Amino acid sequence: MEQLSGKRFPTNPKDYKIYEEVGEGVSATVYRALCIPLNEIVAIKVLDLEKCNNDLDGIRREVQTMSLINHPNLVRAHCSFAADQSLWVVMPYMAEGSCLHIMKTAYPEGFEEPVIATLLREVLKALVYLHGHGHIHRDVKAGNILVDINGTIKLADFGVSACMFDTGDRQRSRNTFVGTPCWMAPEVMQQLHGYDFKADIWSFGITALELAHGHAPFSKYPPMKVLLMTLQNAPPGLDYERDKRFSKSFKELVGACLVKDPKKRPSSEKLLKHPFFKHARTNDYLARTILDGLSPLGQRFRVLRDKEAGLLLQNKLLGDKEQLSQQEYIRGISAWNFNLEDLKNQAAQIQDPGGISNADDSDTSKKVKNGCDVKDFAPKLASSEKDEFHDLQIEEGSLASTFPVHSLQALKGCFDVVEDEEDASSPGPNCKKPDTESMFQQQNSSQVGVSDSILNNGDVLERKASSNRNISAPGQRPRFLSGPLMRSWVFLPKKLLGIVKEMNCSRKISLKEIIVAHYFIVK
Ligand SMILES: Nc1ncnc2c1ncn2[C@@H]1O[C@H](COP(=O)(O)OP(=O)(O)OP(=O)(O)O)[C@@H](O)[C@H]1O
Fold first, then answer.
1. Are strands 145-147 and 86-92 parallel, antiparallel or unpaired?
2. Where do the Protein kinase domain residues begin and end (predicted)?
């Protein structure tokens, strides 16, 4: 399997001695281990297939792709094999762990600019390679930027996570959709026209902010709110006042990546020529600056895990939802599972009366109107409650230039909502009572690129999105992976359907109405 060095890594678990745990993801646990016959330290990512209920062949294909990758800035699998109910992926051990771990341990406020420039340049080299070979990484974030003891940087998690998120039965079995909302490009959330390698450029821009601040923008918010904010607000960026310590060229780089229209984002190749990278130094510089004095990875991992478990418990006891959400982020969990309870909780939290004060989210106050005000269809809201929904209003103009589609519509992939045929600005308050259930069916069958299966048993309506993934091995003509990263599975309880029907309006139901209806349930 190891083609570069000619080493053949064994595919029998008995040939590996597992040491301590060094990482934990949504679907996997990562261990430091010894490959006994080769006397080499490796990392083994163990995916619990039973828990994931995943498509083994799909994962195998992805891991195979991972083993074909050949670039110094990409983690390449030595080999992979199934053992009991698990899939083992054996890879090089990156002794200092991820940038996220390093930040959490020693740089909670983020890194200095030369460090960021060095890290990002290495990541970008990996992206140039991937994009040139027709691949989209789809999970660029600090948690996937691994650092070795000598300051070498490698981008990890190519393939497996993408595969799991896209084709896994896990979502089906859990009735959830999964993604990485903080880093996810708006067009990926939309699921309207598909996406391409420019989605990685958006995630790259978010990662730049993450490395600069120690956390990704919107990371303190629940996933549904992250989706809304990403779609509705102006893109996040480096702030003139707050981020004085950073150069103009860094601000420009972030601005270039975080443009909502993917066509306006530069390619990875072009980005690599950006003047910002003149600030980049050597790997050795990284080793001397950020790695100096760090305790061994396993030890750091244990300390962080214990600390975060304690905080999680504390917040659970206190019922602090926002803190809980933040903790999920701190734990490095980047995929989010949505179910009805989550949605209720999230709907309940979309109610910041004075806007959002997080400096990251300074643009949140730029609210917009899409002409269909909450009060048009929720006349029973008290005035204070109306204010709480100002967050959900969208200014058409401010988005139109950067984001070509109706932004709330964009969220329709997350819900079973009907696309508004008429102008969104016409609230249509005087129309007939709708047949909501058939409306939902109509909408489902009209989705482009979506294989529909509507199970309307009175309790749920569900929509399945088809997977569309193309992978090409190096040497083959590049074909881009495409298809939604997030699966859409939304459950509308009978009660919600009832409330929706109660709305005295014949136009098709919009997402905003669903959220308001949800609000009534939650309340
Ligand atoms: N080769 C490696 N060497 C050292 N540490 C690693 C290695 N691979 C992963 N890790 C550590 O394990 C953590 C979790 O691994 P990984 O991200 O691959 O799991 P995951 O289930 O795909 O998680 P996620 O979905 O959140 O990305 C990483 O953030 C990193 O800290």
1. unpaired
2. 16-277
Q: How far, in Å, from the CA of 343 to the mean position of ligand 1? A: 28
Q: Tell me, what's the ipTM? A: 0.96
Name which residue sits closest to atom 20 of ligand 1, judged by CA: 25
**Closest by Cα among 353, 366, 362, 365 to 397:** 366
Full DSSP string of 48-91: EHHHHT--HHHHHHHHHHHHH---TTB---SEEEEETTEEEEEE
Compute CA distances 498 → 176, 419, 434, 444, whole Å.
23, 20, 11, 19
Q: From ligand 1's centre to the CA of 21, what distance in Å? A: 11
Which positions ≥6 away from 15 have C-beta within 8 Å? 35, 36, 37
Ligand 1 atom nearest residue 23's Cα:
12
DSSP secondary structure code for residue 108 in this structure = T
Average pLDDT, integer, range 378-388: 31
Whether ligand 1 lies within 6 angstroms of the CB of 516 is answered as: no
321 is in an annotated binding site: no
Closest among 14, 22, 170 to 91, alpha carbons compared: 22
